[in-house]
């Protein structure tokens, strides 16, 4: 068997294997793909012979992936997805910017009043691009997810992704004047252990002053992963809140909130735009990244200084 024949068997076998694994049976895969059940079975068997591994456990009642089969499926799906993106890239490079961009971002004030308006403006400038925006805050594996672009907060772990800095957020600890009158002055982070706190997904608050670092575990008070609700609770005097500057600056300016422990600096939070390398090759994805990076800081400042 020559190299060309072997490659054809590999490709047909991979396509058949993915179809069967996704469908859960040879019968369902045959119906969905238009191939015969025997044809798919033969193609998967030939693939297993070439690989010299078993990908599927077959019984008369059940079909399931082997451990190797599960790993092979995940890698094959990524490879097929990259081939699809390569085709899109080739077509896109001889035509105007068009197609779909799936983006994941944090919600709340940043997502709804900064990201969303910028995406609306972007779509007005490029009407042939369809942006699908998801505000779910789940941490996704970009290499295997359907997203082309993700906005992430904090340090990035996966160096294989394309990451570009979007903005740096300053974190503030704030409380209402009435709350501070009831609980007295807060002079050291350890004083927070005696106060009700308003916190979201971050329950370990870290402070530093020079070389001194202090961590406080937020355990008592009000927990909800929604910045607007946290802000309202702080304004109502329910506790000390940890919030991004975009939420609190207008209220610090008019005196409705006071900053707590201003000499103890929390770490700033980095906002980044992240894309898998294959999707970053698409002109439309790069165009959106460029647009957000160019306009984000001005829009963020506008929202932060609202009255």
Automatic annotation (TrEMBL):
Keywords: DNA-binding, Transcription, Transcription regulation
InterPro entries: LysR-type_TF_proteobact-type, LysR_HTH_N, LysR_subst-bd, WH-like_DNA-bd_sf, WH_DNA-bd_sf
UniProt entry tagged with the keyword Transcription: yes
Pfam families per record: HTH_1, LysR_substrate
Location of the HTH lysR-type domain: 16-66
SUPFAM superfamilies (UniProt xref): Periplasmic binding protein-like II, Winged helix' DNA-binding domain
Family the UniProt entry places it in: Belongs to the LysR transcriptional regulatory family.
Classification via PANTHER family: HTH-TYPE TRANSCRIPTIONAL ACTIVATOR TTDR-RELATED, HTH-TYPE TRANSCRIPTIONAL REGULATOR
Protein name: LysR family transcriptional regulator
């Amino acid at each position: 068997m020559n190299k060309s024949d072997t490659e054809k068997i590999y490709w047909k076998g991979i396509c058949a294997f993915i179809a069967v694994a996704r469908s859960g049976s040879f019968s369902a895969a045959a119906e969905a793909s238009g191939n015969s059940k025997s044809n798919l079975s033969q193609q998967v068997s030939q693939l297993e012979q070439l690989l010299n591994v078993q990908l599927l456990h077959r019984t008369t009642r059940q079909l399931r992936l082997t451990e190797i089969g599960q790993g092979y499926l995940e890698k094959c799906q990524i490879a097929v997805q990259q081939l699809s993106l390569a085709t899109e890239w080739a077509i896109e490079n001889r035509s105007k910017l068009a197609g779909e961009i799936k983006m994941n971002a944090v919600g709340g004030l940043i997502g709804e009043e900064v990201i969303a308006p910028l995406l609306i403006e972007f779509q007005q400038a490029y009407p042939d691009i369809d942006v699908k925006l998801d505000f779910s805050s789940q941490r996704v594996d970009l290499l295997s997810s359907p997203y082309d672009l993700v906005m992430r907060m904090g340090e990035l772990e996966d160096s294989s992704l394309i990451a570009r800095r979007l903005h740096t957020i300053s974190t503030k600890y704030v409380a209402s004047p009435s709350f501070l009158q009831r609980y007295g002055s807060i002079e050291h982070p350890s004083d927070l252990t005696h106060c009700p706190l308003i916190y979201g997904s971050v329950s370990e608050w870290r402070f530093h002053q020079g070389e001194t670092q202090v961590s406080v575990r937020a355990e008592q008070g009000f927990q909800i992963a929604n910045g607007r609700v946290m802000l309202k609770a702080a304004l109502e005097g329910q506790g000390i809140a940890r919030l991004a500057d975009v939420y609190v600056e207008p209220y610090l300016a008019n005196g409705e909130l006071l900053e707590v422990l201003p000499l103890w600096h929390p770490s700033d939070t980095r906002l980044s735009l992240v894309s898998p390398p294959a999707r970053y090759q698409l002109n439309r994805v790069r165009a959106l990244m460029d647009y957000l990076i160019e306009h984000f800081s001005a829009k963020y400042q506008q929202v932060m200084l609202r009255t």
